[in-house]
Write a structure and sequence with these properties.
single chain, 88 residues
Length: 88
């Protein structure tokens, strides 16, 4: 994988995470880099759970990536909300 290919993969994963954050009621904190990391992890989760179906862009199957990102954003927001509520 080239550097340009990795950057395009990162952008596609971040866009999928952005779409997933719009689907989930409690979005994850952070900006673009957090979305990119969530996108990469979500693409991995979606690929392992749902396989590779639907349209693909830069090696990322979009539908499983969005579904995996939505699951990961939901879990991440639950964890971050839990940690924010525990302050003493």
């Amino acid at each position: 994988m080239t550097i340009l290919g990795f950057l395009l993969y990162l952008i596609v994963a971040a866009l999928c995470a952005w779409i997933a954050e719009a689907m989930v009621p409690n979005s994850a904190p952070g900006g673009f880099f957090t979305s990119a990391i969530i996108g990469i992890i979500g693409a991995w989760i979606g690929g392992n759970m749902f396989g590779s179906f639907g349209p693909s862009l830069e090696g990322v199957a979009l539908l499983p990536c969005i579904l995996g990102c939505a699951i990961f954003v939901f879990l991440f927001s639950l964890l971050s909300r839990g940690f924010r509520g525990k302050r003493v």
